[in-house]
Amino acid sequence: MRGHALVHADPLLFRRAVSNLLSNALHYTAHGGTVTLSVSPADDHTSTVRVSDTGIGIAPEHLPKIFDRFYRVDPARSQRYPGMGLGLAS
């Protein structure tokens, strides 16, 4: 990991959000793949936290729903990857 960042956020909620994103990235990236966490400042004094990976990805038609509570892209994944869904709902 490289860099420094200052984040003004509720520590518990921020940790939970980043943990959910990292957990999913690690879960759906094959052995030998890459998971990257980055933070970059924006011109409006905010920051962007980004988790990227070389995993299986999410089809574009599912992207509008990833913040729906317990949404699963493919119900068949439930057998292979148990869990409650992405966990991005606010």
Structure description:
The structure is a single chain. This protein is α+β, with helices and mostly antiparallel strands. It folds into 2 domains: 1-57, no CATH class; 58-90, no CATH class. Helices cover 23% and strands 16% of the residues. The chain contains 2 helices and 2 strands; from the N terminus they run αββα. It has a two-stranded antiparallel sheet. Strand 1 and strand 2 (47-53) form a beta hairpin. The chain is globular, with a radius of gyration of 14 Å. It starts with 10 loop residues before the first helix and ends in a 10-residue tail after the last helix. The mean pLDDT is 80.
Total beta strand runs: 2
Number of helices: 2
Radius of gyration: 14 Å
Mind describing the biggest β-sheet?
2 strands, antiparallel
Fraction of residues in helix: 10-25%
Which sequence of strands runs across the widest sheet?
A: 1-2
- Helices and strands, in order, run as HEEH
Q: Indicate the overall shape.
A: globular
